[in-house]
């Protein structure tokens, strides 16, 4: 007698579950299946078989057990996704807000997946979103990042970190943001540069920039020079012996950006 194909065998079991009888036909031969028993509902099915041509039923039982476990894992995954979506849907659309400090999940329409951001307060106010942090004696930013690290980000919130230009563009495109750059040199002298509005283009450079304020002595340079300076500071490896922190924050200012890249 020819071997019974597995798909034929599974078809037989489907027939038996739907309308069990005493005989079925396989490969043109009648086979007695009266020894096959069903107990309880579809969710608790037990079967025994004494068909001579089927020497081992354990393989099918393993398949059924595996599929049951897989279905349970899929249900757990779906449940987790629903929980994540619920969390994201309740996330404040203003990103960091209400002077909360810590990590926050953010979902923006420009990006396919949610991502985490770090919210901070400092002497310049609250609700700042950390986009970059470099130590005086940097380990992470010793050379140009380039490639995936520049676009996707690198590092950790509790250490040296850069959010990546993909997220940076998505954030500044989704709402008007102000920019704060805080620098501490090796003598612990602190400088800040604040821009009322900022946005970044596809070339990973500043495309919009608003009014500038600083505690530096000379503030007479134009915003084009500032835009170039920001582009360089976001490289993070160009300024030795300097700790740099760069922040964004949603701004309610209605003033249009003063600088616009050509």
Automatic annotation (TrEMBL):
- Do you know which Pfam families this protein is assigned to? Fibrinogen_C (PF00147)
Q: Where is the Fibrinogen C-terminal domain?
A: 105-208
- Kindly give the InterPro entries that the UniProt entry links to this protein: Fibrinogen-like_C, Fibrinogen_a/b/g_C_1, Fibrinogen_a/b/g_C_dom
Q: What is this protein called?
A: Fibrinogen C domain-containing protein 1
Q: Which organism is it from?
A: Zeugodacus cucurbitae
């Amino acid at each position: 007698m020819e071997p019974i194909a597995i798909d034929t065998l599974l078809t037989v079991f489907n027939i038996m579950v739907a309308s069990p009888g005493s005989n079925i036909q396989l490969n043109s031969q009648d086979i007695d299946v009266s020894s096959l028993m069903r107990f309880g509902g579809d969710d608790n099915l037990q079967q025994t078989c004494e068909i001579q041509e089927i020497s081992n039923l354990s393989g099918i039982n393993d398949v059924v057990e595996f599929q049951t476990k897989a279905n349970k894992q899929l249900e757990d995954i779906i449940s987790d996704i629903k929980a994540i979506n619920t969390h994201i849907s309740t996330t404040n659309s203003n990103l960091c807000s209400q002077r909360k400090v810590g990590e926050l999940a953010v979902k923006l329409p420009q990006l396919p997946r949610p991502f985490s951001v770090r919210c901070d307060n400092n002497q310049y106010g609250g609700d700042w979103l950390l986009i970059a942090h470099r130590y005086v004696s940097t380990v992470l930013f010793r050379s140009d990042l380039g490639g995936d690290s520049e676009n996707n980000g690198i590092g950790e919130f509790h250490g040296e970190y850069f959010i990546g230009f993909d997220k940076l563009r998505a954030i500044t495109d989704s709402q008007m943001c102000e920019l704060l750059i805080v620098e501490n040199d090796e003598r612990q002298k602190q400088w800040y540069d604040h821009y009322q509005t900022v946005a970044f283009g596809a070339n990973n450079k500043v495309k919009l920039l608003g009014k500038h304020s600083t505690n530096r002595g000379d503030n007479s340079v134009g915003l084009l020079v500032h835009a170039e300076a920001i582009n360089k500071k976001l490289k993070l490896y160009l300024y030795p012996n300097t700790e740099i922190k760069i922040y964004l924050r949603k701004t309610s200012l209605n003033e249009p950006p003063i600088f616009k890249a050509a």
